[in-house]
């Protein structure tokens, strides 16, 4: 190619972004079903797409374990992730994440959206055990977790949240957060927890009557006919910054505040092990 031709190509090639151009966004979806096979729970249906993946570690346990993985490395404004999981009658389905999820700084505009829809049939058990979600300063996260339960189904749910990277001296002076957890039984709501905040979360959490400077928190919900029997033993495991109560005869709710993510996990691990037959997904212990 001649020098003149190369100059012409360079002259006519536009590499500047249009004023209305937007950066690429991460999108992903996973759908899976657990079905019984003999005395085990196995994969009944599975589909994944985009930046959302699912791994199935080998296990000697009769239940099915699935590990969710965000290959985009985190969530920022405009990202969209969806998960649908179903535990058929007579199955045990445990869902966790490969690592902590991260909500990164977002540009002004849309939030990152995460929607999780789960269903549990009679005689089945669902363990929703994601690792911590870490909020970065400037993050914008809109997250929903919806669970439909049939009578006689069992549920163990945890949602841990970390407010910034304490080891790096990060404080959350500007974030947008909308988080909603809803549990229904036969279509009727039995548990609803909603959080919405925009602005300086660090100053808000520093108030003694709000969180007294806590750097992490978690919600645990256990729905089972054995829930009441766990109440007193669980209370013995909790620090002064946590509490446990029976919302219904078969529903135990636990709320925890901690100085940082390390202290939060130190309390969470024995609680989750007790409520999950002394086992946890390996991701939680690596």
From TrEMBL:
Keyword RNA-binding: no
Assigned keywords, A-Z: Chaperone, Cytoplasm, Nickel insertion
Subunit structure: UreD, UreF and UreG form a complex that acts as a GTP-hydrolysis-dependent molecular chaperone, activating the urease apoprotein by helping to assemble the nickel containing metallocenter of UreC. The UreE protein probably delivers the nickel.
Family membership: Belongs to the UreD family.
Organismal lineage: Bacteria, Pseudomonadati, Pseudomonadota, Alphaproteobacteria, Rhodobacterales
Cellular-component GO terms for this entry: cytoplasm
Subcellular location, record wording: Cytoplasm
Main location: cytoplasm
Pfam families in UniProt: UreD
Highest taxon listed in the record's lineage: Bacteria
Protein name: Urease accessory protein UreD
Task performed by this protein: Required for maturation of urease via the functional incorporation of the urease nickel metallocenter.
GO MF entry, a single one: nickel cation binding
Gene encoding the protein: ureD
HAMAP family for the chain: UreD
């Amino acid at each position: 190619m001649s020098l003149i031709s190369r100059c012409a190509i360079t002259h006519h090639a536009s590499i500047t972004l249009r004023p209305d151009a937007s950066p690429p966004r991460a999108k992903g979806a996973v759908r899976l079903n657990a079905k019984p096979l003999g005395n085990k729970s196995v994969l009944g249906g599975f589909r994944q797409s985009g930046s959302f993946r699912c791994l199935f570690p080998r296990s000697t346990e009769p239940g099915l374990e699935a590990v969710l993985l965000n290959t985009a490395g985190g969530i920022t404004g405009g990202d969209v992730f969806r998960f649908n999981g179903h535990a058929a009658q007579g199955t045990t389905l445990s869902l966790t994440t490969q690592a902590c999820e991260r909500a990164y700084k977002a540009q002004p505009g849309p939030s990152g959206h995460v929607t999780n829809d789960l269903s549990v049939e009679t005689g089945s058990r669902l363990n929703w055990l994601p690792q911590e979600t870490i909020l970065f300063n400037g993050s914008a996260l809109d997250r929903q977790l919806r669970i439909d339960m049939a009578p006689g189904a069992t549920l163990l749910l945890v949602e841990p949240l970390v407010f910034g990277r304490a080891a790096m001296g990060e404080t959350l002076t500007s974030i947008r957060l909308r988080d909603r957890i809803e549990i229904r039984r036969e279509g009727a709501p039995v548990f609803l927890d909603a959080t919405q905040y925009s602005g300086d979360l660090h100053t808000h959490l520093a108030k003694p009557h709000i969180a007294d400077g806590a750097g992490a928190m978690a919600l645990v919900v256990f729905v089972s006919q054995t829930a009441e029997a766990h109440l007193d033993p669980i209370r013995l495991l909790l620090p002064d910054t946590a509490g446990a109560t029976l919302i219904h005869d078969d529903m135990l709710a636990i709320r925890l505040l901690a100085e940082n993510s390390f202290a939060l996990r130190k309390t969470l691990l024995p609680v989750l092990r007790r409520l999950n037959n002394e086992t946890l997904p390996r991701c939680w212990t690596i």
